[in-house]
Amino acid sequence: MVLRSRSLAGLLLVVAALATPAAAAVHVWEKQELTFTAARSFANPYTDVIVWVDLTGPGFSKRVYGFWDGGPTFRVRLLATAPGAWRWRSGSSPADPGLAGKTGSFQAIAWTDEEKRQNPLRRGLLRSTANHHALEQADGTPFFVIGDTWWPLGANRFKWYDDDRLRPLGPGAGFKDYVRYRKRQGYNWVNMIAAFPNWITDASPWHVVMNDPEKTTLRSAWLEFGANSAKNMDNEGGRPFIFPGKVPGYENMYPDVNRVNPEYFRYVDRKIDYLNDNGFVPFIEVSRRDASLVWMKYYGWPESYARFIQYIWSRYQADNTVLSPIHLDVISESVSPQDYLKAIRYVMEKFGAPPFGTLLSANANPSTLENWGPDSWVTLHQIGNMREHNNYWYLTEIFRAPHPHPALNGEPYYSGYTDARSQGGGSGYQYGAPGGTDRDDQFVRSSMYGSFLSGGFAGHVYGAEAIWGGDIEPTAPIKMWDAFQWRSASQMQNLGAFALSIGKRYQELVPDADLVSPNKDHNLRAYEGWAYCARTPDQNIFLAYFEKGCPRSQVRGARLDSVYRAQWFDPRSGSWRDVGAGTLRSSRIGIIMLPDFPEDIDWGLRLTYEGPAPPGGRGN
Prior knowledge:
single chain; alpha+beta; 6-stranded antiparallel beta sheet; 14 helices
């Protein structure tokens, strides 16, 4: 058994299995890996063995579970949450002399300020702010999500190259090239799904596979939403599960989800490490909902699904991640939220929550609050896959919940989400616009700023056609490397500039669209004509956003008869300009009349209190 520590430079520290006073020091918040070799043989180590260590350190005493990693090898990944001395003792069920009874220790030291500047994730895992409306790192540093949607990140859609050679975005680009590209644009987060068990081969139409009337309830197991073919979602290590499976008549088309392939996940490990080393937090969902119907029917729900949840969580619990038990974007093609809850409860009761405080979330339709209620396992709320501006309100509902958690829109309007999708077999979407156009950029900005000001103070996740599905096929109407370069993606960093323009005070904002009047027209399924606003409780700061087509408006709820510095924000360039002379005056009942917009396009607005209005004038 060895203890392995991974640093940014790739240095590996190997420490003897038994503790010694001179054990090498490691850094706090740096993943450590304990490797154990079983003495006995097991028919299916994935399902037949549980391994753990009991870890103690400054302010910490918990059981940390591990996972099987092929052959006789088991691993436990852990980290130190504070500087000081740490000790551990291993155990297993059933007891095995190679897995249980081992002990060890290590000394944890803090990162220097310079080392934290080199990689901000060295400040610790994400957590909720004290008011439960935004995110920060373990040392209190604000963390504002600027994310992208890379659901097939673990698969061969994002090629892994061992070398670090730069490759232009195109057919030869690799995973590292996409990470570097988004890092230059200010991104710090990516969405991914750990495994797609039912997506097994390119150009295999799902309706050919599942047109048996006796299995119509399972047809979603092979349905790829928006296209007429399943996609090959294996990687350099193969597929995530072993074949043959147990579905009668389809044993070679659906795997045995009770037998994992660790080699697949070792390649996912490489990508998670690279993301963390480059300042990205991966949001890891264990599976897509379209696998659940077959899973439930043939593999022993909820125990089997719970085992896979725990496998992914234990494998990535010591990385800087946010974890999810399910990608539940379409409930009609899935088991119910309550069926997932059975599996989640099974995990929580048997293994507990992730030991180091990793936030738990899910891409959920319409929201995690609606699906699982206000007092659930969720510690980071999301809305998703209901795209138009009428749906941003679900973030306001989350904000107003009696026991809130930070929230974001994890799957909003996808850039390029239009009837062009029908070329790939989908039904089309009449409210979108072709990717890379001014109109499409505008719709993406509506999702960004509308969601943020509706209560999505954790940040925002971008999405685009071709990227979310990793479209690289010759027949794909849009290739992922082209969608990566659409202008709307580069404008995401401007949302961060808008939010952080008031410093940490963005975490205090209270969403209230009715502070702007008028703020809505009758068109619910659109991205134009609506306005959004949030205000600090002391009425000192207002942030607002106006979609294209908004009429001239007023802002109410200001301090009475006062002067506010007023600035327009251009969400295309991220630049500010004064409104008129740079100040506006509120009336004796706290109403501020706004001037016309600089141009008939979308705009942000910031109002900052400067003091009481001077005598001799009247507020408007």
